[in-house]
Specification:
The protein contains nine helices and eight strands. The protein is of the alpha+beta class. The chain has an eight-stranded antiparallel β-sheet with strand order 3-4-6-5-7-2-1-8. Strand 3 and strand 4 form a beta hairpin. Helix 7 packs antiparallel against helix 8. The protein starts with 5 loop residues before the first helix and ends with a helix. It comes from Coccomyxa viridis. InterPro entries: Cyclophilin-like_dom_sf, Cyclophilin-type_PPIase_dom. This is PPIase cyclophilin-type domain-containing protein. GO terms for molecular function: peptidyl-prolyl cis-trans isomerase activity.
């Protein structure tokens, strides 16, 4: 009877090989000595996971201004992978827009796992729209600064280091490319037994921005800082000036609209225009008289 080795028996019986042959082992070892690469090592090497998409400044970007205790840590600028995870990307963009009821502004970091990730809680206005984020398996938490959403999109996670365990329950939606030093500082923050930061970490502002985070939102931040420091007298003067400017712009718009409705030159003036003009003056008041009163 012909004697078959175990490998030949497996092939004849249609079983999948579980171990390499002696010839393959010798070949792989020779390759390892020559190049330093071995299939067995590479198969267990998580670095073989696909890298995140290449940097693209044309993608949408958002910013998060972060505060720890009473210290403003700075701005985190996030590139959003709208072309790779469109549903999750749109949800994140919407939650960063000014004026939305479920904006990320004012939310706190309710869980901080050192050497893992931070997790932002839902805002006071979040109503749980029932958005289900569908996992996109080619995006991974490969390094620090990867931004992702939970399955129901209610929670935002930002990795502090490589955190592949998040891949199974969080959809990667972007990466932070500016402000990574903020994450390094948060990674050293003390936490209580429930993983809540001992010093509260909060989002003081958020919004859409450009790839460098230098959008006009920076001017808005400066304006908020000035408003915070102004005295009651300065606030009253500012409101009076803004009110006057608003009335003047409305008056100019009304005058332009009335001029377009007037009859061509040489015809009898439209009495209705005169009536509307007098009504406008009654509503807006005599700005020239008001200006003279303010100047006196």
């Amino acid at each position: 009877m012909t004697r078959f080795v175990g490998e030949a028996k497996d092939v004849r019986q249609g079983r999948v090989r579980r171990f390499p042959t002696a010839k393959e082992v010798k070949k792989e070892m020779a390759e390892y000595k020559r190049t330093g690469r071995h299939p067995a090592l590479e198969g267990n090497n998580e670095d073989n996971l696909p890298a995140l998409p290449e940097r693209d400044m044309n993608r949408p970007h958002v910013f998060l201004d972060i505060r720890q205790g009473t210290e403003d840590l700075g701005r985190l600028v996030i590139e959003v992978f709208e072309d790779r995870a469109p549903l999750a990307a749109r949800h994140l963009l919407n939650r960063c827009r000014e004026g939305t009821t479920d904006a990320l502004k004012s939310v706190i970091v309710h869980r901080l796992l050192p050497d893992a990730a931070i997790f932002l809680g839902t805002s006071n206005g979040y109503k749980g729209a029932g958005v289900q984020v569908r996992p996109y398996q080619h995006l991974h938490h490969n390094h620090a600064g990867v931004v992702s959403l939970s399955g129901d999109a209610s929670e935002v996670a930002i990795s502090l280091t490589r955190a592949l365990y998040l891949d199974s329950s969080y959809q990667v939606v972007g990466r932070a490319h500016k402000g990574l030093s903020i994450l390094e500082k948060l990674n050293e923050a003390a936490v209580d037994p429930d993983d809540l930061p001992m010093q509260q970490v909060s989002i003081t502002a958020c919004g859409l921005t450009d790839s460098e985070g230098t959008h006009e939102a920076l001017d808005e931040s400066a304006r908020r800082e000035l408003l915070r420091k102004e005295t009651p007298e300065e606030a009253a003067a500012r409101l009076a000036s803004e009110s006057k400017d608003l009335r003047q712009s409305v008056r100019a718009a009304l005058q332009t609209g009335l001029a377009q409705k007037r009859k061509p030159e040489g015809k009898e003036p439209d009495r209705s225009s005169k009536k509307q003009s007098s009504m406008m003056s009654a509503v807006l008041g005599d700005l020239s008289g008001e200006s003279s009163d303010e100047d006196s």
